[in-house]
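dumping this here before i forget
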Amino acid sequence: MDSWLTTDDGHDDVTRQSETRIERDTMGEMPVPAWALYGIQTQRARQNFPISGLRPLPVFVESMVWIKRSAAVTHRDSGRLSGELADAVIEAADEVLAGQHRRHFVVDPYQAGAGTSHNMNVNEVLANRANELLGGQRGTYVPVHPNDHVNMAQSTNDTIPTAIRLGALSLLPALTAALSELERAFDDRADAFDAVVKAGRTHLQDATPIRLGQEFRAFAHTVARSRDRLVAGADWLADLNIGGSAVGTGLNVEPQYPAAMVGHLGQLTGLDLREGQDRIQLMQSMGDVASFSGLLRTYATDLSKIANDIRLLASGPRTGLAEVAVPAVQPGSSIMPGKVNPVIPEMVNMVCYQAIGNDVTVATAAEAGQLELNVMMPVIAHNVFFTMHTLTSATGVFAARCVRGIEANPSQAAYWLERSPAIVTALAPRIGYAAAAELAKEAVERDMTVRELVTEKKLLSDEDLARVLDLRAMTEPGVPGGS
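structure:
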């Protein structure tokens, strides 16, 4: 490990990594790294929870800092916090929101229940930085104290639920934009493939004809419906329980504080937020978040199915369906020269499986709340945010590096379609279901096409056969060749 640190401000921190300062809390004293903006409670969490090696996702930091900044503004306006101290906290918060000091947010996602460690990590960083701005020293907490000033009128129990809601709402526009881009990519390919008639498949067996454009249009509509469900489901997240304090009752909170906080948070984030009508209920229940996570899972389920369909349609190039070709973005094998794999859809599948598993974690954790609080909120936050981030990235990459570059193979589609015994379905209104079934069976046994077999048996004139077995017409409502 390097003995010298580089700050995220881009200049060398001349404090050696081994140097410490002594801090004290209600449990005693302990050394804290001298370079750290965090303090003793964060240091205790680092020692207690060396679990995953992960740090909080950026959105979890930002959503908490939004709350702390808005609280400082609210208390400055009400006179509860002096302008000097409030302005220092606000400036420290603005630095973090601008991307500075991020290496000081260090608490593992798997931590103390409810998220107290994460809340105190944010409180300590802002307090220490505010004191520096006022000419003070890190670790002294004079004149700005992490609990008394940065956390004024707050509890972990109302800030963490609020941060989860703010974080998810802030990530939503990027996710829905990615879904819209994927929808447009599928629509574009649907237009390009509208003339390609191919075999439909149900149960992975031959079925009646469908146009490749129709398949891709359906993909687009599936993505659009998921986007619309996510937007509708996210509306529940706009109700905030900030101001509920410890158990939702608002102890030590001024009556005007909740509404003021919602207003300041809305102005700061640009989100359309509401003051929760029952802050006790919003603290007790993670149902709104679990419901939204379920919608993320539903999208992941649909997206994975689409990725699988594209992998299947692109299978080959000689021994699979090979009705489409996906862009070649990297060599596919370390041993088989020339092999190209559908790596982007494969990545999408893996992201979707992770998202589905994340939702199981969220649902289980949401159920695990007791009475006035759900102490499993940190793992809920991490999984919802991680799912949104990865689905956003995977959706964008899928659209840009795969779907937009997919090309049809009309000759291969026509080859499979002509050999499909399922086109005999168009003959059923003429010759009956049983006779049509016998034709299909015989065509397979004799390795003939239905068209060849009908011609051999002289069941229809050439003219009638051409009308009835109009493959394009079979992809629209109606009876081929007339009733």
